[in-house]
Amino acid sequence: MGRRRARTRRVSWLAVLGWGGVGMLLAGAFFAALGALNQNLYGASSFVDRYLHAIAEDEILTAATTPGVALDESELEAMGLPADVSTAMLRSNVVGSGPQDIRIIDDESRDDGSHLVTASYRLESRIVETTFEVRPIAPLYGVLNRWEFARSPLAVIDVTAAHNPFFTVGSLTLDTRARKSGEELAAFTQTAPYLAIAPAVYEFDYDSTLLTAQPEEITMEPSLRASVTVSSQATPAFTERVQTQVDQFLDACATQPVLQPTDCPFGMVIDDRVVGEPTWSISAYPIVTLTPGEDAFVMAPTAGVAHLSVDLQSLFDGDFYTLEEDETFTLALDARIRADGSISVQLK
């Protein structure tokens, strides 16, 4: 009996030791796996890599909500930006092209726990290297590393919309007056800052029935501030509509049976006696061309020709005769697009 009890005690201790060893092995495997996860999937390099790939895949909301990307009010103030600066460009289908051929080429760990992660990527034809400083934040589930950018990679683009408050970037059309009021709304050229995800390439332009702007491309690297001008010009349709108004105005002038039609750019002074109603017609209309001015699209003084036919009696010898004469005149104007899309023409 005594030998049997001793044998049983030896078996029990061996079982305990065995299970303890298994537990230690499992714990070691767990911590090894956790370390691998924190080093790779949850590492500083992976954090930066995921941010860049989100932009590349046009997942802009994901990129914009990455820890450390959003700017708080004090950061905006330090950058000279208003607290309500537009975030309208932080969405999909706005970026022209994002980073491609992304590679993490260096990850330097510092004593305070932060990392300097250097990434190489291509923006269209340019190869760019950027070093991001990332720092640890409260871990996920208390064990998995989490990071944030120490400095936001967001860029700022100051957009000048010349001669037209609207511009298009990607598939989005924006109004630079959106956060303005009072006299600012009337300015012919508007400028407004916009937060933009970076790194990325953006293309700005504008195209409507009356106005068009040539594309302007800008490459934005992280934390960069740059400016772009979208310069709208009158389209042929705009010019044609102004031409129609000019022609109608001159035709109305020509219906006045007087030598000097009221509020019209042509007229004639004759010394002889008028014995019949003067008849005007327009021989050549001024050809409208529109260029941007200080506060409107303008047409510089442009020549036209009006023809006068009138029966006269000479004060010298009493003879009756008909005068047929062309008169050259000039016409200048300002043209503006109203809020409802109609055109206001002011003759000068």
Give the helix/strand layout.
Layout: H1 2-39, H2 44-56, H3 60-64, H4 73-78, E1 100-109, E2 115-123, E3 126-140, E4 144-149, E5 155-162, E6 166-169, E7 172-175, E8 189-196, E9 200-207, E10 211-220, E11 225-234, H5 236-254, E12 273-274, E13 279-284, E14 291-292, E15 297-313, E16 320-337, E17 343-347
Parallel strand pairs: 5-11
Antiparallel strand pairs: 1-2, 2-3, 3-4, 5-8, 6-7, 6-9, 9-10, 10-11, 12-15, 13-15, 14-15, 15-16, 16-17
Give the termini distance in whole angstroms: 126 Å
What percent of residues adopt helix (DSSP H or I)?
Answer: 10-25%
Structural class by sheet pairing and helices: alpha+beta
Instruction: Report the principal-axis shape.
Output: rod-shaped
Mean pLDDT: 90
Main pleated sheet: 7 strands, mixed
**Order of helix and strand elements from N to C terminus:** HHHHEEEEEEEEEEEHEEEEEE
Strand elements, count: 17
- Our count of helices gives 5
Low-confidence parts, pLDDT < 50 over ≥5 residues? 25-38
* Spatial arrangement of strands, main beta sheet: 7-6-9-10-11-5-8
Beta-strand content? 35-45%
The radius of gyration over CA amounts to: 38 Å
